Amino acid sequence: MAYSRRKFLKSSGSTISALTAAPALSLLPQSAYSASWVENLAYQAIVPELYTPTSKPPVYTKAIVIGSGFGGAISAYRLARAGIQTTVLERGLRWPNSNRRQIFATDALPDWRGYWHRTSFKGLTGVTYTFPYFNGVFDCTSFKNIDVWRGACVGGGSVVFTGVMIQPRQEYFDAIYRGLVNWDEMNKIYYPRVRAMLNLGSMPDDVYSSTPFGHSRIWDQQARKAGFVTSRTDSIFNWNVVRAELANRCRASATIGESNLGNSNGAKFDLNQNYLKYAEATGKATVYPSHEVQRITFDGSRYVVNTIKYAPDGTVKDRYDLTCDYLFLAAGSVGSSQLMVHARGRGDLPNLNEFVGEGWGTNGDTSASRSWNPLKGVLQGSPNASLLHQRGALPTTLESWYTPGMPIDVGIVGSLGMAFDQTNRGRFIYDPISDKVDLHWATSGNDDAIAMARQINNAIAAANGVLPGAWPFAPDVNGSFTAHPLGGLVLGKATDAYGRLVGYKRLYAMDGSVIPGTTGAVNPSLTISALAERNIENIIAADF
User: Fold this and answer.
1) Which InterPro entries did the record assign (predicted)?
2) DSSP one-letter code for 310
3) What's this model's pTM, rounded to 2 decimal places?
4) In this predicted model, what pLDDT tens digit does every residue of 507-537 receive, in sequence order?
5) How far apart are CA 332 and CA 484, in angstroms?
6) Which CATH number does 59-543 carry?
7) What angle do CA 421, 530, 69 make, to 5 degrees?
8) Of 12, 10, 14, 409, whose CA–CA distance to 217 is shortest?
9) What 3-state DSSP class applies to 326?
C-alpha cells in the first residue's frame, strides 16, 4: 500500500522514537574525545564481552594469519583442518550477537561502538556524527581523494558489509586474469565451495514482499520501466533471522536499516558463525582480538611480527614480537599492502619486487540516489534484493541499496554502483621521513565510474518522473569512497599465481590485495573467498 507523505509523517512518529531508543549514552551531546574511565565502565555494562581479558599469543607459532576477514578466516580454517597450529591476529574486537540486546551502534545514530579510532564520520546522507574514540567495528580510512571503508573486528568485512556475494561474468573474469586463474576450476570448485560454506541465497519472495522492502520493490519497478532487466542477488543474510524480525521474535536489525555497523542479532551469517568458528573448533587455530601488526621482518629463518595490543578504548596496552615459519597476510587490500610496502621501504624485506604496492583500485564503486519516490511502508530494510547490469565501453552494475543512516523510508531510493574499470589505478608509497605508507589516488580516479552510474541513474529517474539525488542530503552520484578496495599485491605480479610473495618463501597474500583493482562490476567478497580457497589448497599441498 502506498503512503502519502503527510500520512507517513503523521504515522511514523512512534516508529522513529522506537528506532532511536538506543542506550542513553547514544543520545547525550557528544564531542570529540577519548573514552574516560567512567565511560569505559558504562560501555562495559552495555557490552561486557568486549572487556573479557584475552591471553597473549604464543611467542612462536608455525603459522600466523594477519586479519580475520574472508581471506584470513578461510586460510585459518584450512590450515587448522590440515593440523597446522595457527595464530590469527585481529586488530579489532570480538563482538557477540544477541537476539534482544543492542550490541552494535545503529547506522542512524552511531556512538562509540561504530567507528575505528576516529571521533567523527560524515555519512552518505551528508550528516556528520561525533562520538568517543574507540575500537569500533567500521574503519573509514581517509586518504587524499578517497575514503576507504574497511572492517575492524573479528570477522572483518563480513560483519559490516551489505551481504551481497555474487560471481562475475566469465568474460570479465577472463579479461582480468588472462589465464592466470582458470575460470572452469573456479566456477566448478571454489565458487560453489564458498557458497555452500556461507549458505548463500537470494532474498525469498515473502521477505521481498514485506513492508520493510517496499523500497526494493520500487527500485525494481523503476529500473524495469526504464528498460533495464533486474535479477536477484545472492546474499550472506540468514533469511530465517530476517523472518524472525518480521514476526517480532527477536530484536529488529536488518529490517530497520542496520548493516554497516553490524547486525546485533546475527542476521548476517558472518565469518564468526562459520569459518572462524570451525577453525577454532579444531583446537589448532586461535583468534587473538585487539592485536595490530606494526612491522614485519625476517631474521633469516623465521618471520618476526611486531604487534601491539589494544584496550577496547583504543589505548595501547602492550607490545611484543611474535615469530612464525609461515606468514599469511589477510589484513585487507590497504592493510596488507601497507605492511609490505613498509617492510620493503625500511629494508626489512628488501627482496620484495617492484610490483608491491601497485595496481590498487576501487572496484569502480559509487553510490547513487533518487528522491521523491513513492512510499511503500515506513521502514527501510538493509539487505539487497536486486541488481541491473549495463554493458558497453565501461560495463556497470547498479544494486538496490538501502540509505545508510536513514532507516525510515522518506522516498529516497539508493543504489550501489560498480564499474568494470581496468584503467584507473593507485599505488602505495613509503615515506621514510614519517615512516608511513600513503595511498596515491588521482582526483579523477573515479570520474569514469561516476559518469556511468549517473547515466543509468538519470535514465531511471527520467522514465519515472523522480529526481536524481537527495538534496540537501546527498548528491545524485558519490564517488568519494570505496567499500571494495582491491589490489596492491596483485596476483602474478607481486605474487605468483597462488599468492606467494615474490622474493620470499613462506610469505603469502590471501585477501583482496591480490585482485587487480576490480572483480568485474560485482562485489568482491565471493571472488576474494574463492581465490583464498583455491590458493590455500595449493599452498598446503605444496609448501607444508
Assistant:
1) Cholesterol_Oxidase, FAD/NAD-bd_sf, GMC_OxRdtase_N, GMC_OxRtase_C, TAT_signal
2) E
3) 0.93
4) 999 999 999 999 999 999 999 999 999 999 9
5) 10
6) 3.50.50.60
7) 90
8) 409
9) strand
CA–CA gap between residue 211 and residue 11 (Å, rounded): 14
Residue type, 277: K
Q: Which three cell numbers, joined as nine digits, stand for 112?
A: 562509540
Q: Which of 230, 208, 242, 126 is nearest to 478 (CA)?
A: 126
Scan for cell 571494495, then name that residue. Answer: 484
Distance from C-alpha of 25 to C-alpha of 21, rounded to nearest angstrom: 10
CA–CA separation, 507 vs 329, rounded Å? 8
> Exposure string (b/e) for 57-73, b if CB count within 10 Å is 16 or more?
beeebebbbbbbbbbbb
CA distance 341 to 344: 5
Closest CA to 414 of 378, 352, 461: 461
Residue with cell 569512497: 481
Q: Which residue ranges make up each domain of the chain?
A: 59-543
Region of residue 174 (left: phi > 0; alpha: psi -120 to 50; beta: else): alpha
**Paired sense of beta strands 86-89 and 316-329, if any:** unpaired
The type of residue at 260 is: N
CB 268 within 8 A of CB 383: no
Residue 399 phi, psi dihedral angles, 5° rounding: -115, 145
Give per-residue pLDDT as tens, 144-163.
999 999 999 999 999 999 99
Q: Is 465 helix (H, G, I), strand (E, B) or coil?
A: coil
Q: Is 336 helix (H, G, I), strand (E, B) or coil?
A: helix
The values of phi and psi at residue 241, to 5°, are -70, -40
Strand partners, 291: 309
In the numeric block, the cell 568494470 is attached to 420
Q: 476-510 pLDDT, tens per residue?
A: 999 999 999 999 999 999 999 999 999 999 999 99
**Crossing angle (nearest 10°) for helices 525-543 and 70-81:** 30
